[in-house]
Design brief:
Layout lengths: L11 E6 L22 H19 L4 E6 L3 H21 L9
């Protein structure tokens, strides 16, 4: 097979946003409360939904999973759930891999 006959398709997209909007950096002294236009959870959700809709325009057939400020364990579970089938898709072109039960 030559390089021109190989095509890759995006089947799964994980949008993982680690913004920590309401968390202050450790080296900054907080002077006064900043009046946000919306609450941190609502802002994070709005940013996530907007990115999701933008990515769907670029890859409309892909499956999307959105994670907003996940813990390390949640990110590991996401990769474990969806990463198992990726190897089979890339090597054989068939969907498969680990089954979630």
């Amino acid at each position: 097979m030559d390089k021109t006959s190989i095509t890759m398709k995006t089947g799964c997209v994980a949008l993982v946003l680690c913004l920590n909007i309401s968390v202050d950096p450790p080296d900054v002294i907080k002077i006064s409360p900043y009046p946000f236009s919306m609450a941190a959870p609502k802002a994070l959700e709005t940013i996530g939904k907007t990115l999701h809709s933008q990515y769907e325009r670029w890859q409309p057939k892909a499956r999307y999973k959105l994670q907003l400020d996940p813990t390390l364990e949640e990110t590991g579970l996401l990769v474990g759930e969806h990463g198992g089938g990726l190897w089979a898709e890339r090597t054989t072109g068939e969907r498969g891999g680990r089954q979630s039960g």
